[in-house]
Every structure is written in structure tokens, then in C-alpha cells.
Amino acid sequence: MRSLFPHADRNDFRKDSAMTTPSLRPVALFALAALSALAAPIAPAAAQDSAPVLSPASKFSEESGEALYANVCQACHMKNGVGATGAGTYPALANNPNLAASGYPVMMVVAGHRGMPPVGKMMSDDQVATIVNYVRTHFGNNYADAVTAKDVAGARP
Ligand code: HEC
């Protein structure tokens, strides 16, 4: 019976297969070069300020002045109420004499004005009173006459 591989025992076949084995040396050098390129310092991703977050629900769930400020007001009025100027102007709430009359910040929160959205629509009267009292007693403001939920109810548009 004839072999299925008539040339299997021929010398030139073995020689061929030896010739197709590539030398490993250049490959190894290339791999080393690639690795050292990877090890080169990678520019750190731009440090991201923690992005402001609005509560996902249609009603804000935060209860404390601190949490309400951080999650509702800070996106625009910035940390510590310093305000910002850029694509728009966000007045500073820090050291702001406009907060002396308690009805004014209540109005701003429940009714909004120009670039200031009426975020108080998504808050209970208690929450609005809490956040207004918070900004009026923080960030260098020291207005002791607290507003009540009743004051807020009366100011709603
Ligand atoms: C989407 C951005 C935005 C958010 C959120 C926001 N504000 Fe404002 N706020 C503004 C802008 C813009 C103004 C200026 C409005 C104007 O031109 O009358 C303003 C004005 C005010 C003023 C009046 C300041 C002054 O000196 O006249 C008060 C008080 C105020 N905001 C309080 C708050 C409080 C408290 C919160 C959170 C419950 C809040 N804001 C959330 C944008 C915002």
C-alpha cells in the first residue's frame, strides 16, 4: 500500500520546516521595546471635580441644609457659596447682604428668577425653610431670624 505522505521521509521536507521557524530574537527585542513604551508615564486623566448631582427624583429627598445645599444649590452657587462667572453668572451666596431680608431668598427658591430655577417647587415647605435658613447662617452670613415652613407656604407662587 502506498504511503499517504509520499514525501514524509524526504530530506528536503525537513529542511523546509526548519527554514520556516523564525528566529525569536528580533521578536523578543520588539516586545521589549513595546513594553517600555507602555511603561512610559501615562498622563493622568484630568482631575475631575466631583460633578454636581441633582437628586434623581422629581422631589428632593434631602432633609438637612447641608445635603440640600450640596445636591441642589452647589451645582450653580459652588462650594461654600462663592458663586461663579463663566457661561453664566451665579451670584455668591457667601457674605451676601441680599440675604438679610429672609423673604428674598425664600422667593428666589420657590419662584426662581431668570437663571435661578424655582427648585423649591420640588421641595416641601420644610425643606425650603431648611435650605434658606442654612444659607442665611453659613458662608459668612449670620442672619438669626429663621424662616418657618409657614413663611414658605405663604410665599409660594
Ligand atoms: C441652575 C442654577 C442654580 C441653582 C441650582 C440654584 N441657583 Fe440660586 N441663582 C442662580 C442664578 C443664575 C441666580 C441669579 C438670578 C438673577 O439673575 O436674578 C441665582 C440667585 C440666587 C439668589 C439671589 C442672590 C442675590 O444676591 O440676588 C439666592 C438667594 C439663591 N440663588 C439661592 C439659591 C439656593 C438656596 C439654591 C438651592 C436651593 C439655589 N439658589 C440653586 C442659579 C441657581
Question: Would you report the number of β strands?
Answer: 2
Bound molecules: heme C
CATH class membership of the domain at 65-155: Mainly Alpha
Strand ordering within the main sheet: 1-2
How would you spell out the order of helices and strands?
HHHEEHHH
Relative strand content: under 5%
Helix count, DSSP H or I runs of 4 or more residues:
6
Query: What's the Cα radius of gyration?
Result: 35 Å
| Name given to the CATH architecture of the domain at 65-155 | Orthogonal Bundle
From the helix content, strand content and strand pairing, which structural class follows? mainly alpha
> Average pLDDT across residues?
80
CATH homologous superfamily placement of the domain at 65-155: Cytochrome c-like domain
The 3D shape can be described as globular
Percent range of helical residues: 40-55%
Description:
By secondary structure, the protein is mainly α. The protein has a domain at 65-155: Cytochrome Bc1 Complex, Chain D, domain 2 (Orthogonal Bundle). The protein is 42% helix and 3% strand. The chain contains 6 helices and 2 strands. The protein has a two-stranded antiparallel ribbon. Helix 3 (65-77) crosses helix 5 and helix 5 crosses helix 6 (149-155). The longest helix has 15 residues, at 25-39. 20% of the residues are buried. The structure holds heme C. Heme C (HEC) binds at residues 72-73, 75-77, 88, 90-91, 93, 96, 98-99, 105, 108-109, 113-117, 119, 131, 135. The site of heme C has 23 residues, from helix 3, helix 4 and helix 5.
